[in-house]
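Researcher: Structure prediction, please.
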Amino acid sequence: MRESYLRLIGAATAAYGLAVIARPELLARPSGLVDRIGQVAPETATSLRPLAWRDAANGLAMALAPNRSVLGAATALRIASDFGDAVLLAATLPERRHRVGAVAVSVAWGALSVAALASRPRATGTEALPPPPPVTGP
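Model: Predicted structure follows.
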């Protein structure tokens, strides 16, 4: 598990979630959920904000996890959310080009989390060094 990468992914996810809470059009426009002049209907904004809260909360859980176990659990939820989003958006977005884009983004973020969770940190060269000998008297 690459903890620093997972925490960075979490921070980015939280930032995106907070941005979409404030401006739902950041998610609505690329998803094709806007009207002819590019405006987001109030009902659409209301529907997107809970997803953004989910991302913000999950991202913060990853970024601030107190230990590897909690980080792993938060990451598993993030992965499930990303792949779940891909499945649901592929089945429900109105236009093919929006479905393709949404699925690509969702799968990419999920795959990034999977890769960071499954990978091992690079060796620094100090892991194989034996402990120093005990200090004895003069």
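Model: The CA atoms of residues 126 and 132 lie 12 Å apart.
Researcher: Thanks, that helps.
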